[in-house]
Amino acid sequence: MACPWSFVDQSALTRESMPITKKPWDEVFFGSTCKKGEIEVVVIAIGVHTFLGKVAHLVDYTNNVGHFQKVLSLSVCLLIIVFTCIGMFPHFYMAFVSSILDMWNMMIKILWVFVGSYNNW
Q1: Which of 52, 64, 97, 120 is the most buried if burial means most Cβ atoms within 10 Å?
Q2: How many CB atoms lie within 10 A of CB 10?
Q3: In terms of Cα–Cα distance, which of 27, 57, 51, 53 is closest to 39?
Q4: How far apart are CA 13 and CA 7, in angstroms?
């Protein structure tokens, strides 16, 4: 550090509301912001060996699926199915009604042919 003390904001990592006083040779985490004073740093770790790297590694390799995530995914799937059915209902309803009317019409024509031909016997 260039001066005997500096105020460093590490709230992105530690969620502290106030900057922390750092003295020479104190560790400063990557992602920190110097609010007051000057800092010269020597990098002692990179990649997964840093604090942020360890956090990212832990988050990346978690395979646990929580209860809320299961409920949320099921709810979204059900909503998609319901809205798809509601959206497709008029199309299927009209096709169903049309096919029923066509069958009714065919039945009447067949009966008409049989009744008409019965009278000619």
Answers
A1: 52
A2: 17
A3: 27
A4: 15
